[in-house]
């Protein structure tokens, strides 16, 4: 028995697990179980630092992962965080949904802003963080990616629409507010650039708006329902690049955690929910998740 314990202690040291204490870990008992040491050591990559190794272990040992992404996963793709202190939304007063519907002047202002925002979004490509998420979906471990982003980069990375839940809609196309028909942005921008022509639906003459959820617009019911279900049925909930301040979206990690799932948060800054997380890393998403899933 002494030999076994001594061996475990040596393995811990070799893997650098003692350094975990620098982070907020509530899995201490589990980490130091024989099962964990054997399993982690088998998969251990000498290039992996202890925190990445722990994320790798949590992913390996989970059966059903739900991923929740925010603006932080897309910054490496060149899409600015509009909510950041220097972001567009902190400089301009948001246009309320009711004002958009009621006033053609407001609609013009909205399309003017949309064209500016779109310059960053149009040429953006998925980065290593998106690719790692796509790999987890492809492997079957992750069924649902809940996203606060409107950039459509999870789709571009190869994840099917049925596996993506968009809480704030999608900014890469527009829809008719009356009949829901999809309209592409290219022709809308062209007509607006030419003489400020506002788009109308070719099927019903309704008002056409970017397919995002605006301020003053209610959250999409179906997306909220699916997000809640997905939070309740997972055994590992991973937050990537969200400061978890925008509710009701920020409630999903708590729902998952209080239902028994383990919670991982990877975000550049600290979040209010780091305290309930089993692992909270303030690091670059692509690097840590890419290393943990062996995706370049
Ligand atoms: Zn229509």
Which terms would index this structure?
single chain, 296 residues, alpha/beta, Rossmann fold, SIR2/SIRT2 'Small Domain', 2 domains, 6-stranded parallel beta sheet, 3-stranded antiparallel beta sheet, 13 helices, elongated, binds zinc ion
What does this structure look like?
It is built from 13 helices and nine strands. With 296 residues, it is an alpha/beta fold. The strands form two sheets. The chain has a six-stranded parallel sheet with strand order 3-2-1-7-8-9, with helices on both faces. A three-stranded antiparallel sheet has the order 5-4-6, with helices on one face. The chain binds zinc ion. Zinc ion is lined by residues 176, 178-179, 181, 201, 203-204, 206.
Give the fraction of residues assigned to helices: 40-55%
Q: Judging by the overall fold, what is the CATH architecture of the largest domain? A: 3-Layer(aba) Sandwich
What compounds are bound to the protein? zinc ion
In CATH, what is the homologous superfamily of the largest domain?
Answer: TPP-binding domain
Enumerate the spans where pLDDT stays under 50 for 5 or more consecutive residues: 1-44
Biggest sheet architecture: 6 strands, parallel
**CATH topology assignment of the largest domain:** Rossmann fold
């Amino acid at each position: 028995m002494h030999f076994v314990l001594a061996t475990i202690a040596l393995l811990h040291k070799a893997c650098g697990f003692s350094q975990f204490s620098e982070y907020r870990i509530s899995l201490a008992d589990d980490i130091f179980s024989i099962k964990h040491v054997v399993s982690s050591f088998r998969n251990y990559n000498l290039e992996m630092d202890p925190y990445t190794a722990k994320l790798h272990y949590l992913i390996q040992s989970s059966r059903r992962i739900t991923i929740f992404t925010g603006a932080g996963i897309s910054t490496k793709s060149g899409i600015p965080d509009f909510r950041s202190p220097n972001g567009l939304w902190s400089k301009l007063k948001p246009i309320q949904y009711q004002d958009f519907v009621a006033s053609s002047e407001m609609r013009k202002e909205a399309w003017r802003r949309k064209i500016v925002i779109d310059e960053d979004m149009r040429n953006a490509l998925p980065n290593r963080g998106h690719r790692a998420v796509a790999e987890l979906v492809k492997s079957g471990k992750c069924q649902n990616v809940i996203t606060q982003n409107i950039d459509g980069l999870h789709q571009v990375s190869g994840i099917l629409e049925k596996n993506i839940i968009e809480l704030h809609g999608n900014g890469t196309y527009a829809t008719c507010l009356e009949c829901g028909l999809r309209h592409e942005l290219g022709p809308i921008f062209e007509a607006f650039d030419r003489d400020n022509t506002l788009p109308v639906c070719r099927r019903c003459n309704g008002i056409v708006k970017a397919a995002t959820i605006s301020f003053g617009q209610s959250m999409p019911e179906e997306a909220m329902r699916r997000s809640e279900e997905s939070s309740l049925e997972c055994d590992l909930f991973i937050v990537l690049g969200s400061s978890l301040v925008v509710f009701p979206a920020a409630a999903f990690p708590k729902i998952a955690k209080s239902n028994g799932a383990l919670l991982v948060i990877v975000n550049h800054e600290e979040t209010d929910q780091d305290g309930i997380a089993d692992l909270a890393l303030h690091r670059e998403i692509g690097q840590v998740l890419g290393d943990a899933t062996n995706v370049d």
